[in-house]
Design brief:
The chain is built from twelve helices and 15 strands. By secondary structure, it is of the alpha/beta class. The strands form three sheets. It has a seven-stranded mixed β-sheet, with helices on both faces. The N terminus is likely disordered.
């Protein structure tokens, strides 16, 4: 199904969704149609999450059409990221003024390049790849914390709040792990008298006894697990089996309720960062808007991400004077400064930097409950 066909289906969904606004849509004769693109996977392991993201974005678009200032009507054009070059051509042909999405590091990085060549802003690439944010790319507006910033925040918390003098890191030898390790190393280099042991594991590796033994020999006060989710749970189990002392920390992308199921008691006490709130804690109007989104119960974080993407686009559109173009949209995004959102987090954009999320919550797993340790732990530290 092409981008234009999906667009027609989605517009029917947008008009059918209820509970996100009050006022009737302006008449077609009096409005400027503003098209927004959305890149999501239509197949594969992220397809269901992508659909939730897309429909939550659609719900926020409906809210913008019903509640925003008159004179404009927003439309979504959705494309499958699997055939990325073709999808970008179709989105450009539809004259979208910005594109949201692109799931995963490879798709996000490729989409950023293709869209920048056409001078179309990419907002909310669904990846923490540091190269999308540092150095600043004028046409890319990330939201999620980068892996490097995440690593910095974890190391800073372990040293400043937990009093760790020696850190150990078990990291995945991939973009994800190497970037997280780079952030950890940067913080250690800035501090006096802090030791660091780093042990790498291969993507797809299943046995972690040797890696944990290397860590245990150094006697760390804190162990940071910087791997994807399933290896992180297995490493946590191995740390417990070998009775490795020291507090345990891991990245925000491992904040998953299945952690306790896969790691058992070894997941208890794990400290991690949370950049999105739990859905039941957000403003009631946001919950009402997302209530009709299929799959929201299974993928609440992706629903919040889609809604947040719509918040950012709506905030920028309200700053555009005159006809909305891709260049004016980029300038409006850079003029947002620090934008508080209904989801409860703040994003930061300026001509000097496209920071996205500026602070995170630090939480600890306590018998299956995420206990808040810090409400506003800064991602953007010197």
């Amino acid at each position: 199904m092409g981008a234009r066909q999906i667009s027609l289906c989605l517009l029917a969904l947008v008009l059918a969704l209820a509970g996100c606004g009050r006022d009737p849509e302006p008449s077609r004769e009096s409005v400027e149609v503003v098209r927004l693109g959305c890149l999501v996977p239509a197949s594969g392991p992220l397809a269901e999450a992508g659909a939730v993201f897309r429909e939550a974005l659609a719900a926020r678009v409906l809210a913008a059409n019903r509640e925003g200032p008159g004179g404009r009507r927003l439309e979504l054009v959705v494309a499958d990221q699997e055939s990325l070059q073709s999808a970008v051509r179709e989105l450009a042909g539809a004259q979208v003024v910005a594109v949201v999405g692109a799931f995963g590091a490879q798709a996000a990085e490729a989409a950023a390049g293709l869209l920048a060549a056409r001078r179309i802003p990419l907002v909310f690439p669904v990846s923490g790849l540091t190269r999308l944010q540092e150095p600043t790319q004028r046409w890319v507006f990330p939201v999620r914390p980068t892996y490097t910033r995440d690593g910095r925040a974890l190391a800073g918390y372990a040293i400043s709040r937990l009093g760790a003098k020696h850190l150990a890191v078990i990291y995945e030898e991939s973009d994800l792990g190497r970037e997280g390790l780079a952030g950890i190393k940067a913080v250690v280099a800035e501090r006096q008298g802090i030791g660091l042991t780093a042990v790498g594991i291969k993507p797809g590796q299943s046995g972690f006894g040797d890696a944990v033994r290397q860590v245990k020999e150094t006697g760390p006060q804190a162990v940071i697990i910087y791997t994807s989710f399933v290896p992180a749970t297995l490493i946590a189990r191995e740390l417990s089996r070998q009775r490795v002392e020291g507090r345990r920390l891991t990245s925000y992308f491992n904040l998953d309720p299945l952690g306790l199921e896969l790691a058992g008691e070894a997941w208890n006490g794990m400290i991690m960062l949370r950049w999105l709130p739990e859905i039941y804690t957000v403003d009631e109007r946001v919950q009402e808007c997302l209530r009709g989104v299929p799959g929201v119960e299974r993928h609440p974080s992706y629903a919040l991400m889609g809604f947040l993407a719509g918040e950012i686009l709506d905030g920028a559109l309200r700053r555009v004077v005159g006809e909305v173009t891709d260049s004016r949209m980029r300038d409006a995004l850079e003029s947002l400064g620090f934008l508080p959102t209904a989801v409860g987090c703040t994003v930061g954009y300026s001509a000097d930097g496209h920071r996205g999320i500026t602070a995170v919550e630090v939480v600890r797993v306590n018998n299956g409950i995420y206990q808040t340790l810090e409400n506003e732990w800064p991602l953007w530290v010197p």
